[in-house]
Specification:
The chain has a domain at about 75-150. It is built from four helices and no strands. The protein has helices at about 15-35, 45-75, 80-100, 120-150. Helix 3 (about 80-100) packs antiparallel against helix 4 (about 120-150).
Length: about 150
């Protein structure tokens, strides 16, 4: 088996380049929209938001992702590691999208039907299902992988 120093460095594959191109396309479209509608876009409104989003990303999101990634690197079983990565990625996107509902931003005391469900509890349930499901899928993948390597061909 090759040592890490002897392995070839990882390079982006075609799927990575596809998503990189799509990301640049989305950013370019957004920039064109800002310049195309410059008369309606007040820089005093969107520049602080953009700077704040960059600071939050670099100060909170990126270190958290690196910390979680380092934790996953210690998991020895590749099948479980991959399944957990997918579960955490899906859970993070869902958490980000539903956080205003979980925090009940916009709830009206006079209208109890506005946000009637216990969104915080439901988000915790979602995370438990994702993580337990990921471990189950990872164990299945590892079992299948070990059975494939042990069977004579």
């Amino acid at each position: 088996m090759n040592t890490p120093a002897e392995r070839e460095p990882l390079r982006p594959g075609p799927v990575a380049w596809l998503f990189i191109a799509l990301g640049f396309g989305v950013m370019g479209t957004a920039l064109l929209g800002v310049f195309r509608e410059a008369d309606q876009a007040d820089p005093g409104n969107w520049i602080p938001w953009l700077v704040g989003a960059a600071i939050i990303h670099d100060a909170i999101v990126l270190p958290l992702v690196l910390l979680v990634g380092a934790g996953f690197a210690s998991i020895g079983r590749p099948g479980i590691r991959v399944a957990l990565r997918w579960a955490v990625a899906v859970g993070a996107v869902i958490t980000l999208a539903t956080w205003p509902v979980v925090r009940r931003w916009g709830a009206q005391p006079g209208d109890p039907s506005e946000l009637p469900l216990p969104a915080g509890r439901n988000l915790v349930v979602l995370w438990v299902v994702l993580l337990v499901g990921a471990v189950a899928v990872g164990v299945f993948l590892e079992h299948r992988r070990s059975a494939a390597t042990e069977s004579p061909r």
